[in-house]
Specification:
This protein is an alpha/beta fold. It has twelve helices and twelve strands. An eight-stranded mixed sheet has the order 1-4-3-2-5-8-7-9. Strands 6-10 form a two-stranded antiparallel ribbon. A two-stranded antiparallel ribbon has the order 11-12. The radius of gyration is 20 Å and the shape is globular.
C-alpha cells in the first residue's frame, strides 16, 4: 500500500501585520457558546485573476456582514501581496470601514511571498498553512477561500469546535459526499484511493479545503503547520503527476495517515459544483456557497434554488446602510465593475449566460 512517510519539521517565517483597525481581541482559551468573537481568515493575492479575487473579497466580507448576528464581533484576517493591497485600497478606505457597524472588522496582513510554495495551485493559496504562526494570538479560526458566500452566521459554524474530540484539530466538508459518484469521478490520487478503500468518511474524493475550521492552539502543539509544509515538499518532489490542488492535497494525505485528527462538516457548509450532497439543502436552509472553478464569474451555476452568479452580484452591489435583498433567481445578469463605489453596469456585456431550461423551470416552481 502507498504510504506517507513522516519527516522532521520545517520552519517558516511569520507574516507582518500592516493594518490593524483596532486592538486585536484575544480568543478565549476554551470555545464559548455562543462566541463573543469569531476569527476568520482568507488569502487573496493579485495573481492572474486580479480584480476577480478583489471582488470575491468584497462579496465574502459583505455576506458575513449580512449573516452576522448582533452583539458579536467578526474579525476577518486577509493575507495579501502588495498588488492586491493596492487593488483593495478603494474598498478598504470606504466599504470595509462601513462593515464595522455590522460587527465585521477587516485586518490586512502581508502574505509570505518569499515562500517556495507561494504559487502552488494558486498564488497565496497555501497561506492558510501558516495560520498557527501568522495568527499567533488567536485560539481558533474559520478559514474561507475568497470565492465563498456565507448564508450562515459564522458563529453557528463556530459551535462545531465544541464537538471536536480531544484529538481533532481541523474540520472540513468533503469534496464529494455521494459515494456512488466515485465510479464517475474516477479519482486517481493514491491518498484518495486509499481513503476510499479504508472507508473513511471523506473517501470518495477527499476533503475540500475551501472552508476550514482550525483549532490553532492544538495545531501548535501537534505541529500541524510544519507537517503541512513538509507534506507539500514531499508531494512537489515525488508525486507531481497527482499533485494538483496544493495544500488540499497535503491535508488529504495527512488525513489518510491520521484520520482521528479530522472532523467532517455537513455538506451544506461548502456547497459547490462537485459537492453532490446526499440531500440537496433546501432554499430556506442556510449554507456556504463555494464558487470554485471561477463559477462566480463564468457559466451559470445553479444549486438548490441558489443562482451563484446572481447572488454574487447582489452581495457585491449591496450597501451596508441598506437591507440586503436577493434578486429573483434566473434574472438577467447585470455585471460588476471595480471598485464597488464605481458606477455599476446595467447589463453584463461579457459572459452573460442565461439559466438553462432545468434551472429556469426550478426557479418558477420556487416562487
Amino acid at each position: 500500500m502507498w504510504r506517507f512517510p513522516l519527516f522532521a519539521v520545517a520552519c517558516v517565517h511569520a507574516s507582518r501585520s500592516v493594518r490593524t483597525p483596532q486592538a486585536l481581541p484575544k480568543s478565549p482559551s476554551s470555545i464559548r457558546l455562543p462566541p463573543d468573537v469569531v476569527h476568520m481568515a482568507m488569502s487573496a493575492c493579485q495573481g492572474a485573476r486580479g480584480q476577480q479575487v478583489a471582488k470575491e473579497v468584497v462579496v465574502m466580507a459583505n455576506s458575513v456582514a449580512v449573516a452576522a448576528s448582533e452583539g458579536r464581533e467578526y474579525h476577518i484576517h486577509i493575507f495579501v501581496d502588495d498588488g492586491m493591497k493596492t487593488t483593495l485600497k478603494p474598498w478598504l478606505d470606504e466599504g470595509a470601514k462601513a462593515l464595522v457597524a455590522s460587527g465585521v472588522h477587516i485586518h490586512i496582513q502581508d502574505a509570505d511571498t518569499s515562500s517556495k510554495h507561494i504559487n502552488t495551485f494558486r498564488k497565496c493559496a497555501t497561506e492558510r498553512a501558516r495560520l498557527p504562526v501568522s495568527l499567533a494570538e488567536v485560539d481558533s479560526v474559520l478559514y474561507s477561500d475568497s470565492d465563498t458566500i456565507w448564508q450562515e452566521d459564522p458563529a453557528v459554524i463556530w459551535r462545531y469546535f465544541s464537538k471536536f474530540t480531544p484529538e481533532q484539530t481541523m474540520a472540513m466538508s468533503v469534496e464529494t459526499e455521494l459515494k456512488a459518484a466515485a465510479s464517475r469521478l474516477k479519482p486517481d490520487q493514491p491518498w484518495i484511493l486509499d481513503s476510499f478503500k479504508k472507508d473513511l468518511p471523506w473517501g470518495v474524493n477527499g476533503f475540500n479545503t475551501g472552508i476550514l475550521m482550525w483549532n490553532l492552539t492544538r495545531a501548535r502543539k501537534t505541529n500541524d503547520m510544519d507537517k503541512i509544509i513538509k507534506t507539500l515538499d514531499l508531494l512537489q518532489a515525488n508525486y507531481t503527476k497527482f499533485f494538483r490542488l496544493g495544500d488540499q492535497d497535503a491535508l488529504n494525505l495527512m488525513a489518510l495517515e491520521n484520520p482521528s485528527q479530522f472532523m467532517v462538516l455537513p455538506c451544506k457548509y461548502n456547497l459547490h459544483v462537485n459537492s453532490l450532497c446526499y440531500e440537496m439543502p433546501k432554499l430556506a436552509d442556510t449554507t456556504i456557497l463555494h464558487g470554485n472553478c471561477a463559477l462566480f464569474h463564468q457559466g451559470r451555476q445553479y444549486l438548490g434554488g441558489r443562482d451563484y452568479r446572481l447572488l454574487f452580484e447582489d452581495f457585491y452591489r449591496w450597501s451596508p446602510s441598506e437591507p440586503f435583498t436577493a434578486s429573483k433567481c434566473c434574472s438577467l445578469l447585470k455585471g460588476t465593475a471595480w471598485p464597488p463605489t464605481a458606477k455599476q453596469p446595467s447589463t453584463e456585456t461579457e459572459m452573460n449566460v442565461a439559466c438553462d431550461e432545468a434551472a429556469a423551470k426550478a426557479c418558477k416552481a420556487e416562487v
